[in-house]
Fold each of these.
Amino acid sequence: MMLKVSDVKQFLYCPRVVYFTYVMPVHRKVTRKMEYGKEEHLELERLEKRRGFRSYDLSSGERRYRTKLYSERLGMEGVLDMHIMCGSGCFPVEFKHTSRHPGLNHKYQLVCYAMLLEDRYGKPVRHGYLYLIPGKRVHVVEMTPNARTFVRKTLSRIRLMIARESFPAAPGRPARCFECEYRNYCADVG
Ligand code: SF4
């Protein structure tokens, strides 16, 4: 079964979000925050085009935006915000609207894109970048063998959950449920 990179990101945030996507689809309201996020991404792309590569610790390169990536081997697809091609390799970049330290779900989302880029170009990706929009900070994520294994295991866990139609436990982090668009469908959260 083909899964999306965003499924991995959401599963690590709360597995029920993926359950509500595939096993018991429910209506999901598009929030103003989501719309605003799209506009801000476009503006950032515009500004990125004028910048150098110093924040990525690279001397030069070519930026490619909103690339559709697909791997039959991994059973995964997604659209990557940006990647940089240069002599020393290929590096994925995801833009994030957070001023806090990036979450594990963001880190593994980037690892998924690195694995898809490896399939696309046939060469290893050593690291990638999370660009934190509010503070204009760049956070480096190393693509370790353990991180790749964790992504493969997460893909298997998602497929198993869907095949068995098993309703997962809530993440036990009330702050996540407080802002969640699926809150009405989870009767057991406060
Ligand atoms: S309300 Fe909480 S448990 Fe339910 S989907 Fe959202 S984050 Fe997960």
Note: Residues 14, 16-17, 170-171, 176-177, 180, 182-183, 186, 189 surround iron/sulfur cluster (CB under 6 Å).
Amino acid sequence: MPVITFIQKDGSSRAVEAKNGASVMETAIHANVRGIDAECGGSCSCATCHVYVDDAFLHLLPEADEMENELLDGVASERRPGSRLSCQLTVSAQLDGLTLRIPEMQA
Ligand code: FES
């Protein structure tokens, strides 16, 4: 199973085994990773599942669609080049080792 590492704002990190086909948000919620609220449950309408994707993995991800892009413009923490909504990222074997940072705040 692919392993995803979530890094908290205090620098602590947690590596979590993820199921192929699940979203990164679902992976975090199931593992009780702090800092991802996912208020809309993954329907791309709340932006409280914001993460910063490590540069090394950005090229492996599909581009954010228009809806995700619009929501990223309104995230509570600074939008950066690696900003993505984790409910829109699907786990695959290719993403094994994916490293994500949790933003300062989600709402
Ligand atoms: S969970 Fe709401 S936009 Fe991702």
Note: The pocket of FE2/S2 (inorganic) cluster is lined by residues 25, 38-40, 42, 44-49, 85, 87 (CB under 6 Å).
